[in-house]
Specification:
By secondary structure, this protein is an all-alpha fold. The protein is about 75% helix and about 0% strand.
């Protein structure tokens, strides 16, 4: 009889442990979120007519000019810093270096 009660207690403990684990997993599933965004790519050709081709050409030209302006905005400060560094180097080279090599 005692052995049966011990086995029942063990089985009840196992059931409670599994029930607790199951509740934890349910809460974890409820807290998880999955987001999926699906976009269809735009068609490469909008139309086959001359007007559509001209519109695409103008649009491509505008995008190219836009890219060049952005590139210039990024590169201009870098070129400015490099030019300042070169001017400082030339100034130091002409004023400081000759002092060390003067004949007295």
């Amino acid at each position: 009889m005692l052995e049966v009660e011990r086995e029942l207690a063990r089985v009840r403990g196992e059931i409670e442990r599994l029930t607790g684990r199951m509740n934890y997993l349910k809460q974890s599933i409820e807290m998880s979120t999955i987001s999926v965004d699906i976009d269809e790519p735009a068609p490469f050709f909008e139309g086959w007519g001359i007007a559509d081709s001209f519109k695409q050409a103008v649009n491509g030209f505008i995008q190219t000019i836009n890219a060049l302006v952005i590139f210039t905005g990024y590169i201009l400060p870098i070129i400015t810093y490099i030019a300042i560094a070169i001017l400082i180097w030339i100034g130091l080279k002409e004023k400081v270096v000759p002092r060390f090599f003067r004949k007295q």
